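note to self: dont lose this again. the chain is below, predicted strucutre after it. 285 aa total, dont forget to put it in the shared folder this time
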Amino acid sequence: MQRPGLGRGLIVVGPHRSGTSAVTGALEALGLHACRQDDRFPPSAWNERGYYESRSLAILDETLLHHLGGAWWAPPDPGPNWARDEGFGALRLEAARLFGEAHSFDQWVWKDPRACVLLPFWDLVLGADMPRLIVLREPEAIAASLEARNQMPREFAIALVERSLRLALRDSAERPVMITAYEDALADADAWCRQVVAFMHQVGLSTAEPTSFDGALDLLDPGLRHHRPESERNRSAGWLWQWAYERRGIHPSLAIHGLPDEAPETDANIRLAALTFTPVTRQTR
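---
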C-alpha cells in the first residue's frame, strides 16, 4: 500500500545512460510531475534537455549504496530482505521526508538509476504497489556512453548494466510494470505515448487535460541519441537484455520466471570497479 502523504506516481528505473531522463521528461509532459525545479540536476552536454532527477534523492541513494558497500558505478547486490534491517530505519524516515519535499504532488514521476538496486528500500518508503516503468537500452550503447562520459572501461559498464537491470526486474516481480525500450520510444514516439497513457490509466494515474503529446514528442528526439552499439552484443548482459526485450509491454503483475542468472564475471568486475575505478566527466562544451 502507498504511504500517506506521498501521493501516487510512477517510478522510472533503468541503468545509467539508458534513456531514463528523456522518458521521465516525456512523462512529465503527459501530466505527471517530476521533482521540484530547484532540486533538479541542471542540463548538461550529456543531457541537453535536462535530467528530471532529484539531487537530494540521488544523494540519499548514493549514501544507501555506500552503506551497502557499493557506489553508482559499482552497484551492490545486498541479497533478500536487506531493506528491513533495523539499521536502515532512520534512513527510511529521512527518505520519506526528502521524497515529500521533492515531490509534493498528488501525482508524480521519479527516476534515479541508482534505484535499480534499491527498490526494496523504496517499497518500504513509498509502498510496494507503486507502478514501475523499466527502460531498456542496448548494453553496448550504454557502455559506449559511459566510456565517453566517465571514461568507464567497457567490462565495468557491462557489469553495471547487467546487475542494475537484473535487480530492477527481480525486485519488480508481481508489481504493475511497463517494460519499454528507449529505441522504441524514439522510433515511434506517438505510439509509445499512447501505450504509456494506457498504462498510466490502468494504474490509477491521470493525464493532463486535454492530453497532448507535443511536449513528449519534443523530448523523444532521435537526434539526442549519441551512441549506438558498435560491436557484437555482450553475451551475459545481452541474454538478460533479450529476456527483458521480449517482454516489452504492460504487465499488471510482472512474472519473472526464467529471469537469467547473473554472469559469473559480473560480480568480479563490479568488485574490481569498486576498488580501482574513479569516474570522471569529460566536458564537451
